[in-house]
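> forwarded from #structure-qc
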């Protein structure tokens, strides 16, 4: 019995020397795991480039911790692009984290809504002609045939051909509004959202004139086609950009969708049009008011 006790005591002594006699063995077992998790987090943050925005992480807690309550934007005067004043917008409007899943669903929703679905093939009951049997069933030595509208014959019907249908899909309004503000926020944080004073117009409707403006501001071919969004009609601006080629295009606010905000280079938008976008697409920020019973 004494020898067994000495053996167990020697084993425990070796264990204590392995982890350190002055510290608790349980603490020593937990310390390496804690140090690994802290080192992993530190190395992850250290690998991020200085230009990487921490708010683009999908964690909502990190987003709330690092996003400011308001963001400051500069209002320019078109076409001189002279800074006029500053305007502040809520971070829930122009500083949302990037959500690729929501943007993808919004683009698919818009694309499905634009599909015509007018493809139509004739069935055997829509093809002109008599529906009598072409030849007898037996006795001719040839294959059996029915009417001339048979899909096996030239000029016959189409089997399982396309018919008129509705390709449009459904998307919750709150999700679609969030996709709008997410696209605007992504453009703002990249520095591609340029807000101008209302009334963007040119003095003359010349293609060379508008190309010189694009070249001076480094818009167009280098960063992709720029999109100019106006709240009203600008005749000279529209005429000048008709022959501008790959430099840019101009659209009114009701013609723009989420895909336009994502696929083009720079977004030059009037302040009135931006305010209209943010006002029309904020249903997810408004709480429902229960009606009094």
């Amino acid at each position: 019995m004494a020898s067994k006790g000495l053996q167990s005591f020697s084993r425990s002594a070796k264990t204590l020397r392995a982890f350190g006699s002055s510290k608790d063995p349980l603490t020593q077992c937990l310390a390496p795991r804690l140090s690994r998790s802290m080192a992993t987090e530190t190395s992850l943050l250290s690998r991020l480039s200085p230009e990487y925005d921490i708010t683009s992480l999908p964690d909502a807690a990190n987003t709330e911790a690092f996003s400011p309550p308001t963001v400051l934007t500069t209002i320019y005067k078109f076409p001189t692009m002279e800074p006029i004043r500053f305007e502040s917008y809520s971070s829930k409007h122009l500083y949302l984290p990037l959500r690729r899943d929501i943007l993808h669903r919004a683009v698919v929703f818009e694309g499905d809504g634009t599909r015509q679905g007018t493809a139509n093939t004739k069935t055997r009951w829509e093809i002109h002609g008599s529906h009598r049997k072409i030849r007898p069933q037996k006795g001719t030595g040839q294959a059996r045939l029915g009417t001339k509208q048979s899909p096996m014959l030239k000029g016959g019907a189409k089997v399982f051909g396309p018919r008129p249908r509705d390709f449009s899909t459904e998307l919750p309004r709150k999700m679609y509004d969030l996709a709008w503000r997410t696209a605007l926020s992504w453009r703002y944080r990249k520095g591609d959202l340029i807000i101008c004073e209302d009334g963007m117009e040119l003095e003359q409707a010349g293609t060379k004139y508008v190309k010189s403006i694009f070249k001076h501001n480094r818009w167009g071919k280098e960063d992709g086609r720029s999109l100019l969004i106006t709240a009203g009609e600008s005749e000279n601006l529209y005429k000048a950009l008709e022959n501008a080629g790959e430099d840019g295009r101009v659209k009114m606010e009701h013609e723009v969708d989420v895909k336009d905000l994502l696929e083009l280079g720079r977004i030059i938008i009037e302040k009135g049009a931006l305010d209209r976008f943010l006002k029309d697409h904020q249903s997810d920020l408004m709480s429902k008011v229960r009606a009094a019973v």
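QC bot note: The beta strands are 70-77, 82-90, 193-196, 226-230, 248-252, 267-270. The chain has two domains: 54-114+168-285, 118-166.
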